[in-house]
Amino acid sequence: MGFARTCSVALVGVEGVVVEVQADLEAGVAAFTLVGLPDKSLTESRDRVRAAIVNSQAEWPQKKLTVGLSPASVPKGGSGFDLAVAAAVLGAAERIDPRSIADLVLIGELGLDGRVRPVRGVLPAVLAAAEAGYRQVVVPERTAGEAALVPGVSVLGVRSLRQLIAVLSDEPVPDEQPLEEGRPDPMLAGLLVPGAGVGTGLAADPSDGPDLADVAGQHTARRALEIAAAGAHHLLLTGPPGAGKTMLAERLPGILPPLTRQESLEVTAVHSVAGILPPGEPLVHRPPYCAPHHSATMQSLVGGGNGLPRPGAVSLAHRGVLFLDEAPEFSTKSLDALRQPLESGHVVVARAAGVVRLPARFLLALAANPCPCGRHTLHGAGCECPASLIRRYQARLSGPLLDRVDLRVEVEPVTRSDLLGQGGRGEPSGAVADRVREARARAAARLADTPWTVNSEVPGHELRTRYVTEPGALAAAERDIERGLLTARGLDRVLRVAWTVADLAGRDRPGADDLALALELRTGIARGVPVGAGDRR
After folding, report:
1. CA distances from 300 to 271, 286, 329, 464 (A)
2. Could you tell me if residue 356 is inside a domain?
3. Are 478 and 494 within 8 A, CB to CB?
4. pTM here?
5. Which one of 33, 180, 364, 414 counts the least CB within 10 Å of its CB?
6. How many separate domains does the chain show?
7. Residues pairing with 24 in the sheet
8. Residue 279 belongs to what domain range?
9. Cα–Cα distance between 499 and 508 in angstroms, integer?
10. Residue 137 is part of a domain; what is its CATH number?
11. Helix or strand or coil: residue 283?
12. Per residue in 18-52, pLDDT tens?
């Protein structure tokens, strides 16, 4: 009889749980039993592991074999346990020393020929192992760079089970020849999953992506875009078709600052679990951009799926931009599901299989037409939509959802002089991104001793007591509250925007002009403040 144990990691959402993989051999009819609440893909690992061991020139034990996954109460799924199961079986059969794998964490899928295939979620799995105190992990060679992002962990990348056996047995390591240059690599199939990302993509470098200089005119909307990027404020763009709402929103990721190290790890973990992490790019440096179609379901937006919930669009846009074009065409149920993550920065999805907490701190950008035909705000354009239809169309964006949107901008049609270049070329994204980066640095310095990093995260109580405005600056906001134009949450968000305007202008605290611009961008009521009122003086 023989016994061996090693470890692997089960993913629950984007969080990992270290699982002990135990193998026990005893006399009896040859059989392979896998216990510990495995799903279908994990149950099938019995056949993959047996074939991989045999094809790796190792002997399969002809005894009664039981493999247990502990804790047994945690649901386990996926093919990432194959490597750990094979190592435990070989340890119980004394092909390798059981002591050499007792403190190892092994993650990877096995092919029938013994090759180790990459799996999704390596980064969060290794993070969980490091937090549990493990310092040595074995992963597929293709994902070794991703695992190496975790500090304090020794990573071994292997191409095959034969290599792992040789390393653990102090034998000469066989040289597994890589594929010839130009040949397709089937091993990458485990990394990229078609359809896993809901209209998502990683923002390109600003020098290669769409540029704000391409947008003709729209000075107010451009100013709102800069404020949204500097303070991570949610944005609503309304206007007729062809005014440039989508062009503006698509250029928002290009003026956002690069992700910090911690933010990069958070984004990479989500994309790794979702199966949309680009091969060869283990760490995401740019904010993601997610733009689902208006037919997206509530589950695809906030997370869901069979069994344990998977990340939705709000999590795929974590630390980046979630753009909902034609926002009124989304179902009301789907839009209202965004209200909780907009406030908390995460989403808790409860299903029969378990409860998952997913990160969802994103910048929401909405684009909407004023009516079904889109010509309601155009003079002499011939809008024939009945008033009742216009009200119903605009009511699809509920009041509680809009109350969480800091900036609401009316995008006017482009004038002839702007469109033909007679109005002058607008600023490029690089120049705007520099101002955004400076404003964020100023806010981060002010909030250095707090749990917040951008103005949109500061609670209202702190804004009214600790970070006060100039004397008399709140007079207009107080009048709007008395008239019912502004809610308590709305006042907090106006103060946050005012601080961002002041940061962009290089001032120590907001003044009356900053509050007036923030109120105008919030309520849509002109306050007599020029668009450039937030510029440096």
Report:
1. 15, 23, 15, 37
2. yes
3. no
4. 0.88
5. 180
6. 3
7. 3, 66
8. 234-405
9. 9
10. 3.30.230.10
11. coil
12. 999 999 999 989 999 999 989 888 999 999 999 99
